[in-house]
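User: Reviewer 2 asked us to show a designed sequence for the structure in our supplementary figure. I'm pasting the structure tokens here. Could you produce the per-position amino acids so we can include them in the response letter?
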């Protein structure tokens, strides 16, 4: 009984495998260009990920960064202005910064204006970029 079940099961498995092979052959003959392009794209994707991991090793987040205090002192940026700059870099609005620091939004605006003049920029994004270039922010 078990022998018969195994024989029929094996034959059905071989038949299913044969039908799948025939279907695959029809697919390859009908769309050979798309199949080769897809395989080539998958190969380049794998190569790109591998090369990226080899050439650019991960650095632990939060470790190894020391803000450049000398530049901060040279520009005359106070501790409060630096706090505002860090919160700007975190993407906070003036109201959020004001509530975090416990000051009025007008005070935050004046700190931001002073930062703009000290960093010689006109926008928040420029201020953050400049601070990162100078090594004050991560």
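Assistant: Here is a per-position design you can include in the supplement:
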């Amino acid at each position: 009984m078990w022998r018969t079940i195994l024989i029929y099961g094996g034959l059905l498995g071989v038949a299913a495998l044969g039908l799948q092979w025939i279907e695959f052959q029809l697919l390859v003959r009908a769309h050979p260009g798309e199949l080769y392009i897809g395989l080539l794209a998958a190969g380049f994707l794998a190569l790109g990920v591998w090369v990226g991991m080899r050439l650019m090793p991960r650095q632990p987040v939060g470790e190894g960064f020391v803000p450049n205090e000398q530049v901060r002192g040279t520009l005359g940026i106070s501790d409060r202005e630096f706090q505002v700059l860090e919160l700007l870099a975190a993407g906070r609005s003036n109201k959020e910064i004001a509530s975090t620091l416990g000051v009025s939004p007008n005070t935050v605006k004046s700190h931001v204006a002073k930062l703009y003049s000290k960093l010689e920029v006109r926008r928040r994004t420029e201020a953050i970029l400049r601070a990162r270039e100078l090594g004050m922010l991560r």
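For the response letter, you might also mention the following. Residues 66 and 96 are 26 Å apart (CA to CA). The radius of gyration is 31 Å.
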